[in-house]
Amino acid sequence: MKNSNGYKATETHIFDRAITILDDGGIVAFPTETYYGLGVDPYNQEALKRLFFIKKRPLNMPILVLVDGLEMLYELVDSIPDFYLPLMEQYWPGPLTLLFPARKHLSEFLTGGTETIGIRRSPNPLVDRLLRIWGKPITATSANISGELPATNVAAVAQSFGDSIDYIIDGGNTPGGKCSTIIGCTQGRLKLVRPGQLTIKPD
Predict the structure, then answer these.
(1) Phi, psi (degrees; rounded to nearest 5) at 141
(2) Helix or strand run (H / E) with residue 157
(3) Is the bond preceding residue 93 a cis peptide, omega within 30 degrees?
(4) In the beta sheet, which residues pair with residue 101?
(5) What are the angstrom distances between the C-alpha of 133 and each of 36, 126, 142, 150?
(6) Is 39 left (phi over 0), alpha (psi -120 to 50) or beta?
(7) 154-167, pLDDT tens digit by residue?
(8) Cα(135)–Cα(139) distance, integer angstroms
(9) Mean pLDDT, range 31-42, rounded to an integer
(10) Looking at the domain 2-194, which fold is it?
(11) What is the value of pTM for the model shown?
């Protein structure tokens, strides 16, 4: 496992290395506003398969994706429900994952066969920089074996995965605590899918 320990996470070569690995179908761990996440190219089917394998994740569990703005969002979603717009305005970037109607071409590894895709914008500046340099969305499933506690630091990521991941962007300790709040929609109404950091009560 190649690790960025010993370097400042703002140094350009760290992001260049991470992007090279992502382009080659590799797995990169990085800090978010909650826990460390595992990133792969969401358009690379083999990378997605490998991600499920190392996490021992059931295939029917969707994988959420991070974007840096509307341009990336429209690559992934079929439409944006009107009642999501004030939530996006108020809580993005932040720990709010929204379930959008997914574009038909997206892998079922991302959607879990639900025809929806979970997306958020992270306020972590390292994630934002990575997305802007790479120019693509990135997966951000939590860095843990399914059923175990998510990692809040590089040591915990390494302990869980060893050499089965390719690179870690070391952003120090993450806050941990509750995961992102997940909001979806059913029959034109907001639905709380998973409680999390944000307290949002759908009407």
Answers:
(1) -60, 145
(2) helix 154-161
(3) yes
(4) 116
(5) 19, 11, 22, 26
(6) beta
(7) 999 999 999 999 99
(8) 13
(9) 97
(10) DHBP synthase (3.90.870)
(11) 0.91
